[in-house]
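User: Sorry, folds how?
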Amino acid sequence: MSAPASSGPLPDLARPDVGAALFSTWSVGTPERQLATVDAIAAAWDSRPWPTPGLLSYNLYAGTDGDTLMHHSQWADEAAYHAFFRTQRQQRNDAVDSAVPDIKRLGLAYYRHYRGFRAPATVQPAAQAAMADPGLFVVVEIDFNDPDPRARRTWVDLVIEALESEPDPGLLSADFHLIADGERHLSTDRARVLNYAHWTGTAAYEAALAADGPRGGGSSAWDRVRDFPARVGASSRSYRFRRSFVRPPSAT
């Protein structure tokens, strides 16, 4: 499935006016239903006015598994999302469901951006010039058994220190988010970090996983990341960017 020609700009994960970053996942079953759902979402959003000035961007990704869709939205604050949820969210979902029935909505969580890593300026232009599309996005959820957010911030700091000293080839950026308190319909897990990593492509990502490099041991920086005592597990999914919806100037 190729990305639509008018997919829109990639989001800036570190933009300072974002007070709440929401991530959710849908399961739709097949690559054909993925494409149909993307089209239905685009129709539902393009045919309606921008819902609220508090929504800064809404971004849609298709899983490489042929089943999942990831939704990432950036809000001025959590209250703006809750107002949208009460008054406008359902009509958009109903329009999508009428076009593609039996979508499974797997959960929604609210995060705040903590820190990001960017590949060195000497690497970025050459890597991006070789890309035929926006690349591969890998979202990793890391779980901790310590509820103190300082543990998660310390771990992220160690990861960024390791990336800066021994970066992965093909990794363009990594943006780390800390899960935040939510209302009842949001996730209540308060011991998680979400890493939104942007790679040049599948080959670069798979090469990094397969390489017998610093993450496998022998590097003191990556040893501290791997052996961090509060980290208890992680899961990941990879995606292709499909569409962004950005607040128009008239909505500000």
The two ends are 34 Å apart (CA to CA). Strands lie at 20-27, 55-63, 68-75, 104-118, 136-144, 171-179, 192-199, 231-246.
